[in-house]
Amino acid sequence: MRYYFAMKLFLDTANTDYVAEIAAWGVLDGVTTNPSLVAKEGTLRGVSRQADFKKVVLEMCKHVPCVSAQVTSTDFAGMKKEGEEYASWHKHIVVKVPMTTEGLKALSYFRSKGIKTNTTLVFSVPQAILAAKAGANIISPFVGRLDDAGEDGMKLIKEIMEAWSHYGFDCEVLVASTRHPGHIVDAARYGAHICTIPYDLFKKLPVHPLTDAGIKRFLDDWEKVKK
């Protein structure tokens, strides 16, 4: 089990301007992106969708040392082809693979080739264990989607971290699909290695009304002293 001085913070986005902005704070450790996020940003408008996606990913690699780029194939052969191509673009790229039996084959293959991977769409402890044993470098349990389905997403993180504490899995746990600051707080409390956060939520984290009120009071008092 590996321990860290602080939980890593990733930005969940396909917007390169957002990455540059948050990276400038000095707290950003990586980025997670996927086809849905890329499509949402409207970055795939050119003749070559792959070329557009590559451009987005490489721009992100300028700002952070870890960028998860998701494959779109559902079979092992397709994942293998896409993943090897993504990994060839830049040393900071981590290939994101879905949690399926074909994905497990891909994880094992990529581990044998030294290609880093992130297993996405994890919703149970058994899935987490299988992905780690297959060779994933990162697993991504989706807490917000579990909450939406009436389950307790953070309970899954607690259970995974408890299981991880008994074994030497060379696999980091990334809390995905975060929806509010409480998810980030609980992720840190349970010892999760990474938390990926949407831009709008990331912007809320440094803000507190008492901080704003305190700054205003200091400035008001200073203006009185100056007079």
Provide structural commentary.
With 227 residues, the chain is an alpha/beta fold. Helix content is 51%, strand content 16%. The chain has a single domain, classed as Aldolase class I (TIM Barrel, Alpha-Beta Barrel). The protein contains eleven helices and eight strands. α4 packs across α5. The chain is globular.
Any descriptors?
8-stranded parallel β-barrel; 8 strands; about 230 residues
Across the major sheet, the strand order is 1-2-3-4-5-6-7-8
- Termini distance? 59 Å
CATH topology: TIM Barrel
CATH architecture: Alpha-Beta Barrel
Task: Assess the beta-strand content as a share of residues.
Answer: 15-25%
Class computed from helices, strands and strand pairing? alpha/beta
The gross shape turns out to be globular
Percent of residues in helices comes to 40-55%
SSE layout and pairing:
Layout: E1 8-12, H1 16-23, E2 30-32, H2 35-41, H3 49-61, E3 67-70, H4 76-89, E4 93-98, H5 101-112, E5 117-122, H6 125-134, E6 138-141, H7 143-148, H8 153-164, E7 172-175, H9 181-189, E8 194-198, H10 199-204, H11 209-226
Parallel strand pairs: 1-2, 1-8, 2-3, 3-4, 4-5, 5-6, 6-7, 7-8
Helix pairs in contact: 4-5
Provide a quick synopsis of the model.
The protein has 227 residues and is of the alpha/beta class. Helix content is 51%, strand content 16%.
